[in-house]
């Protein structure tokens, strides 16, 4: 692949703003499992090999089993996720595929399971990983 722009070098302030959002996500009350499920599922949908590689490794470090990692893309048919995790995965899919909008059903299910602060943190985590996916894919970052 032809060399592409390196955003941190060309627009360091903008890159730092995204890093600050990531730092915020790391300080939230989101569990490590919830964070990694969000990051992996959004990255799968977006086809970001760099982020899938990174976040599946992080998931293992947080004790997520290989089985649960492998089944994320087919979570509806897998009995290894909690009701809360399924709500997070459904919301992640709809926010990532925002052109189809977020249905009232998916949003209300998540709102029923989580308080407003946790729900806000979930949404911000989804938005953040989608930003990272788009940056990595557009600038040609590769999994190694």
From TrEMBL:
Residues 12-93 form the Carboxymuconolactone decarboxylase-like domain. The keyword Transport does not apply. One of its GO terms (molecular function) is peroxiredoxin activity. It comes from the Bacteria. It holds the Pfam family CMD. Keywords: Oxidoreductase, Peroxidase. InterPro entries: AhpD-like, AhpD_core, CMD-like. Coiled coil: none annotated. This is Alkylhydroperoxidase AhpD family core domain-containing protein. It comes from Flavobacterium phragmitis.
């Amino acid at each position: 692949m032809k060399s592409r722009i390196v955003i941190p070098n060309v627009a360091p302030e903008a890159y730092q703003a995204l890093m600050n959002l990531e730092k915020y996500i790391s300080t939230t009350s989101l569990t490590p499992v919830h964070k990694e499920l969000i990051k992996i599922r959004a990255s799968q949908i977006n086809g970001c090999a760099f982020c899938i590689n990174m976040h599946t490794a992080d998931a293992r470090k947080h004790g997520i089993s290989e089985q649960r990692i492998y089944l994320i893309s087919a979570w509806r048919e897998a009995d290894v996720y909690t009701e809360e995790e399924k709500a997070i995965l459904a919301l992640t899919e709809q926010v990532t595929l925002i052109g189809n909008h977020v249905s009232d059903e998916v949003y209300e299910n998540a709102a029923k399971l989580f308080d407003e602060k946790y729900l806000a943190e979930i949404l911000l985590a989804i938005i953040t990983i989608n930003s990272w996916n788009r940056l990595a894919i557009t600038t040609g970052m590769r999994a190694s």
